[in-house]
Design brief:
Blueprint lengths: L1 E2 L5 E5 L5 E5 L4 E6 L23
Antiparallel strand pairs: 1-2, 2-3, 3-4
Amino acid sequence: MKFSPDNNFILSGSDDKTMILWDLQKYVNVFTYRGHLKRINSGFQPGCKVSGKWRR
């Protein structure tokens, strides 16, 4: 589990091959990423920004 650089989001990864982006201001699941072939090690890259726009 990793906090975004601005501490407004958490990205959690799991052995079930999903990543979930959580909004800490609203306490909601913003997006669930599925379709990975292996377990997920989540993390934000330095300087990343969360815009709310996602490729599906």
